[in-house]
Each structure stands twice: as structure tokens, then as C-alpha cells.
């Protein structure tokens, strides 16, 4: 356990403080009685931070001079004025990924959840298991879990965190238990090729005391550890039963039946996430009773198959899916509870991802009869026509392109009871959808 870093400094400034991971780290600092400030171009999460004691301002408003350490998100450009000022002033400057590793060093044991899909849900499931078990821990979650938010703390025995592969950030962490959910290619702009990405996952898993790995991945054979997912793996689901997209199953651990688990959240892929969470919990000494209570009491994460309201009687559901595999899973789940027509609004997230996985996106979206591709959420990138939403829409027969909220209103004008409008993407489509529903339709 390392405490020297936090003992040396009393105040922290976050450039990009309202991002879901950054705000969780800021909340950690506040919980440790540190003075916290920060800035962001999007102040959507500012009220929560301010109520916790942070000073938050718009980017460029000034104020970092009064803080000891400056933390920046990877979305910040190298020539960002605040980042340049911090370096000019000679302040310690640290990326989000490195700072997360410093935070993890404050705890007795670390559990880190990685993978292309499901990190947030699995991390939140695991946190709920630990909470139900009465363990003393903190959780850093890449989304707002129901009843927990993106940061939870009641002690320092364990630290549960997402481990993002973007810019190889997960390699800063040294977990005691490392979870890998999937190794599909994503963020390839940060890696030379898929082999390099797999090598990094292998390195991440192999440095842990215990690795929790998908049984059907090559990592299980290379690294060893606890496997999950298949019928013959260490942790498996049997007697799978579904109703309206929600599943129950019999959990088996190391060949022995443990008991039945009834999930509350939809999607068969969440059975997979639950198996990974159960395996990690067992690795840390938590038994079936608490695992069952944690999984069955878990009510989900914001933007993960979340009902956000109704449009003319049709259900409006939001999901964070922004990778072709995630989109396919979200569509399967939405169809399982939709009696009428399925309308899909998809917002591509970054030009580079869309361009690199263009054919996969076309394949995942091509069988949707009612599809609107909304303008790309660029995040940290500049325009690239080859990966734009308009280019993607033109490649899919029957798809429409939307450039403003009014285009979504027009697209969904014919919906009725029994239909579902599914909003997909990791960008601002969630806020746009919620605003439309609140102002024009029926909120919840």
C-alpha cells in the first residue's frame, strides 16, 4: 500500500473533471479530505462535484495556480492552455491513467476489470457484491450505477476499478485480481495491430496474482487462472431461463452447483458479466450467499439498456453500445422485449473507430428496418469523412442521416405503443434523447 504520494500533496486540479472517470477520481480525493478543483467544456456533472466540495469552472476560466497537482484526461490535447500553464508553473502533471494507479496504491488489494465490452456493468456488479458482503472497499466505476453512482467508498481494504485499454492505461495498474471480459479489437489507433493489443491484455493479466479470463479466449491457455463463460469453465451458467430479456441461471463453480441467480437487468450478455463478477468475488474470498445477494440486488447502470421515457407510448431506451459487437447484443436484447417495431438511433463515437471497423458497423446495422445514423461524436478527434456518420449512413440501405435533434423528432414521428426507440452510442446522444423526451414527450 503506497501513501507517500497523497501525503505529499493536499490539493488536486482536474482538467476534464466532469468526465465519468475523472469525476470519480475527484470524489475519491474529496473523500480523502483533499482540496479539489477542476474545469471542463461540459459541466453536466458539475453540480454533483460542487455539492461534494469541489470547485468547478468552465475550461480556461483559471484557478489551477492554487493547486498542488494537475490531473488531465486523455481527451485533452497536448496544446491545451491549462495543461501548458501547469507545466510552465512546474507543477506535478499526471494523466488520468497514471493517477488511477496512484489511487489504487492506497488500498490493501486491487481488483481491475478490463475488456472491450461490459467493463462498467461487471465492475458495478462486483461493487454491489462487496457492498452486500459488508467488505470495506472503494469502487471507481465508468458509469453511474443505480444506488452507487460512479464512486463508492466505505473503507480501504479493496479497490475495485475499471481498467481501460485506451492508450494502454490499464498497464499502469498492478491488480491482485485481474478480470478480462473480452479482447476484441478496439482503440486500434493506440496499437499497431490486434497482436499488440492481445499482448497488452496478456501482460495485464499475467502480472496479477489471479487472472479471471473468458474460457474461449487464447489468454486462458497462455496465462492460466480462473475461467468463465463456457459450460466446462470454472464458472459457468446452466439451466438458463429468460423472460422479456431478463435471465436466471444456475451458477456452477469449479464443477459444483452453487445455486440459482435471478438477474434484474436485461440482456443475456449480462449473464456473462455476472459470471466474471462471481469469479472475481470468489477469488477474493466471498462466497455464494453474498454473490447471489449482490447480483440479484444489482439494478443496473445508467445508459445500459436504460428506460429513459416514452415517445407517443413507445418505450425509449438508451444504451452505451458503440462497438459493432455491443450493438449486435443491444439489438438482440431490445428485440426480446419489443412487441412492435424497433426504431434505432445510433451515434458513432470517434471517426477513427468508425473508419477502422467500418465493415463491421455496416454488418451490425444493416438489418435494422428503421435506422437513423446521428452525427458523429468526435470526442478528441478532428473530422474524417471516411469515418463520418454520413458516410456510414450512405453505406447502409434504407438508413437515414440526422444532423440535429429535429431530425430525430421527424424520424420517430410515427412511433406508437408496442414500439421501442433505441438510442445507441457513447457520445452526447444520451443527453439529446433525454432532453427531447423531457421537453416533447413523456419522461419518467
Number of helices: 16
Q: CATH H-level name of the largest domain... which superfamily?
A: Mur-like, catalytic domain
How much of the sequence is in beta strands? 25-35%
Flag low-confidence runs: none
Number of self-contained structural domains: 3
CATH topology of the largest domain: UDP-N-acetylmuramoyl-L-alanine:D-glutamate ligase
Inertia-based shape:
globular
Characterize the biggest β-sheet: 7 strands, mixed
Walk across the major sheet and give the strand order.
8-7-9-6-10-11-12
Report the C-alpha radius of gyration, rounded. 22 Å
Termini separation: 44 Å
In CATH terms, what is the architecture of the largest domain? 3-Layer(aba) Sandwich
CATH class of the largest domain: Alpha Beta
- SSE-based structural type: alpha/beta
As a percent range, the share of helical residues equals 25-40%
Compute the number of strand runs.
21
Q: Report the mean per-residue pLDDT as an integer.
A: 90
Amino acid at each position: 500500500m503506497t501513501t507517500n504520494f497523497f501525503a505529499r500533496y493536499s490539493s488536486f486540479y482536474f482538467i476534464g473533471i466532469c468526465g465519468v472517470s475523472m469525476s470519480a477520481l475527484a470524489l475519491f480525493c474529496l473523500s480523502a479530505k483533499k482540496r479539489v478543483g477542476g474545469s471542463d467544456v461540459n459541466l453536466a456533472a458539475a453540480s454533483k462535484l460542487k455539492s461534494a466540495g469541489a470547485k468547478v469552472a468552465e475550461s480556461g476560466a483559471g484557478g489551477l495556480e492554487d493547486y498542488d497537482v494537475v490531473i488531465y484526461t486523455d481527451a485533452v490535447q497536448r496544446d491545451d492552455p491549462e495543461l501548458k500553464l501547469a507545466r510552465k508553473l512546474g507543477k506535478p502533471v499526471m494523466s488520468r491513467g497514471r493517477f488511477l494507479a496512484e489511487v489504487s496504491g492506497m488500498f490493501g488489494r486491487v481488483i481491475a476489470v478490463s475488456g472491450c465490452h461490459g467493463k462498467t456493468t461487471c465492475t458495478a456488479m462486483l461493487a454491489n457484491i462487496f457492498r452486500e458482503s459488508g467488505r470495506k472497499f472503494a469502487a471507481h466505476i465508468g458509469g453511474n450505477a443505480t444506488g452507487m453512482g460512479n464512486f463508492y467508498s466505505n473503507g480501504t481494504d479493496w479497490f475495485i476499478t475499471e481498467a481501460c485499454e485506451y492508450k494502454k492505461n490499464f498497464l499502469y495498474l498492478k491488480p491482485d485480481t485481474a478480470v478480462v471480459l473480452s479482447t476484441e479489437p478496439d482503440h486500434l489507433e493506440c496499437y499497431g495491430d490486434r497482436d499488440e493489443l492481445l499482448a497488452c491484455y496478456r501482460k495485464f493479466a499475467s502480472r496479477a496474482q489471479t487472472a479471471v479470463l473468458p474460457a474461449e479466449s487464447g489468454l486462458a491457455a497462455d496465462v492460466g487462472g480462473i475461467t468463465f463463460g463456457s459450460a466446462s469453465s470454472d464458472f459457468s451458467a446452466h439451466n438458463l431461463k429468460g423472460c422479456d430479456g431478463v435471465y436466471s441461471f444456475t451458477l456452477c463453480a469449479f464443477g459444483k452447483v452453487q445455486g440459482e441467480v435471478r438477474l434484474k437487468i436485461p440482456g443475456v450478455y449480462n449473464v456473462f458479466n455476472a459470471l466474471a463478477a462471481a469469479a472475481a468475488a470468489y477469488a477474493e474470498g466471498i462466497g455464494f450467499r453474498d454473490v447471489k445477494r449482490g447480483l440479484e440486488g444489482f439494478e443496473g447502470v445508467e445508459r445500459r439498456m436504460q428506460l429513459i421515457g416514452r415517445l407517443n407510448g413507445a418505450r425509449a431506451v438508451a444504451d452505451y453500445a458503440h462497438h459493432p459487437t455491443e450493438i449486435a447484443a443491444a439489438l438482440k436484447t431490445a428485440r426480446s422485449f419489443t412487441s412492435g417495431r424497433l426504431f434505432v438511433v445510433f451515434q458513432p463515437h470517434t471517426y477513427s473507430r468508425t473508419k477502422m471497423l467500418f465493415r463491421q458497423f455496416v454488418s451490425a446495422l444493416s438489418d435494422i428496418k428503421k435506422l437513423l445514423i446521428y452525427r458523429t461524436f468526435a470526442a478528441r478527434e478532428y473530422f474524417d469523412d471516411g469515418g463520418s456518420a454520413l458516410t456510414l449512413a450512405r453505406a447502409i440501405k434504407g438508413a437515414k442521416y440526422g444532423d440535429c435533434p429535429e431530425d430525430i423528432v421527424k424520424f420517430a414521428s410515427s412511433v406508437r405503443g408496442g414500439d421501442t426507440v433505441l438510442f445507441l452510442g457513447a457520445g452526447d446522444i444520451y443527453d439529446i434523447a433525454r432532453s427531447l423526451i423531457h421537453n416533447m414527450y413523456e419522461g419518467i
